[in-house]
Amino acid sequence: MRTQVGIIGAGPAGLLLGALLSKAGIDNTIVERQSGEYVLSRIRAGILEQTTVDALISAGVGERLLKEGIPHEHLSLSFAGQLHTIDLPKLTGGKTVTAYGQTEVTKDLMDHRLAAGRQTVYEAKDVSLHDLTTAKPRIRFTKDGTEHEIECDFIAGCDGFHGVSRQSIPKEKLQEFSREYPFGWVGVLADVPPVSPHAVIYGNSPDGFSLCSMRSMTRSRYYVQCPITDKVEDWSDARFWDVLRSRLPAETANAIITGPSIEKSIAPLRSYVSEPMRWGQLFLAGDAAHIVPPTGAKGLNLAASDVSMLAQAFAQHYAEKSNEGIDGYSARALRKIWRVERFSWWLTSLMHRFPDTEGFGQRVQEAELDYLMNSVAAQTTLAENYVGLAG
């Protein structure tokens, strides 16, 4: 087989890259080790920056998003028993974010790819990358017991943190930076109306962090900070709802509508960046190159930023015979990635209780929250980062 761009991974990053390349007339094939049903079942992000919305619209997959996505014009912070709200459009020149689940984004992208007749190979086993520093890199895999090979001009690694793409770069050529956080998040998805239908609520309490978000007007996503050693079975629905309400102001807590969880999980928090994002004809994007803690909802949005840059670079290569975009991709992407990593780390540090957040540390955290809510400049910085920085 032969294609111009081989894409490893059929998550939102790989699918969005495929859609943008197809719009530019660039042939592409996606290789995914899981089934399509498995990919679609992953329940993750749900808040889209304006630049991500724009990228999806540009790729031709924005119709349902524009109809069903719920704009958020505010961001709320809960601490010291009170709820404080930040007006996002007022501070960012009219920008907002949109609540629309990653599952819905993935479905829209899958439907678009199927309608376009582009090839996606699901359940590809033993995927391996070869000849990455030559003009003809290759993807090998096994499908239904038969070995296959795809010859490409370029390979885009969009296969996540544990995928084969980054692992195909020699270890001595990579610099890796990471930070592990000493806690996790218990997350619950429930078919109940959101307590805050037009703003995400980030909560800081003496007992830890909480987050109230949503996927639709009838489906809510809630989180609470927990010890990293906790297991899902430690958290009954009743315990989760009790802890969530205990970490919010009384008025907000009393307004929460509870219900049985339809999904419950515990996620560790980490920050991670791998440099560079290019090795020969292999280009990394999304979680293959970086991880951000979910505080701030940047994971999917940062992946969308990567693939938007990468699609522009490939389009410039084929249409203008210029390699300026692909040669500058890694440096340009990393500049934004580190700014987003900084914001996610800062917001995580501001809203969570760390093992050493006692005494002086706790007072400093409280002082920073107080300063934030009384400084237009500080709120503007938060709002600009939250709605999304330019590339």
Helical content (DSSP H or I, runs of 4+): 25-40%
Note poorly predicted spans.
none
Q: Tell me the domain tally.
A: 2
Instruction: Provide the CATH architecture of the largest domain.
Output: 3-Layer(bba) Sandwich
Number of helices: 13
- Average pLDDT figure: 95
Shape: globular
* Class of secondary structure makeup: alpha+beta
The fourth-level CATH homologous superfamily of the largest domain is: FAD/NAD(P)-binding domain
Strand ordering within the main sheet: 6-5-14-15-16-13-17-20
Topology:
Blueprint lengths: L4 E4 L3 H12 L4 E4 L4 H6 L5 E3 H9 L4 H6 L1 E3 L1 E6 L2 E6 H5 L4 E3 L2 H15 L3 E2 L3 E6 L7 E6 L2 E6 L2 E4 L6 H4 L7 E16 L8 E7 L2 E9 L2 E9 L9 H10 L3 H6 L5 E15 L2 E2 L2 E3 L5 E2 L7 H22 L3 H28 L8 H14 L2 H12 L4
Parallel strand pairs: 1-2, 1-12, 2-8, 5-14, 12-19
Antiparallel strand pairs: 3-7, 4-7, 5-6, 9-10, 10-11, 13-16, 13-17, 14-15, 15-16, 17-20, 18-19
Helix pairs in contact: 1-6, 1-10, 10-11
Write structural notes for this entry.
This protein is of the alpha+beta class. It has 2 domains: 5-71 and 98-178 and 270-347, FAD/NAD(P)-binding domain (3-Layer(bba) Sandwich), CATH 3.50.50; 181-269 and 355-387, D-Amino Acid Oxidase, subunit A, domain 2 (D-Amino Acid Oxidase, Chain A, domain 2), CATH 3.30.9.10. It is 38% helix and 30% strand. The protein contains 13 helices and 20 strands. It has an 8-stranded mixed sheet, sandwiched between helices. A 6-stranded mixed sheet has the order 8-2-1-12-19-18. β18 and β19 (282-284) form a beta hairpin. α1 (12-23) packs parallel to α10 and α10 packs antiparallel against α11. It is globular, with a radius of gyration of 21 Å. The relative contact order is 0.17. The model has no long low-confidence stretch (mean pLDDT 95).
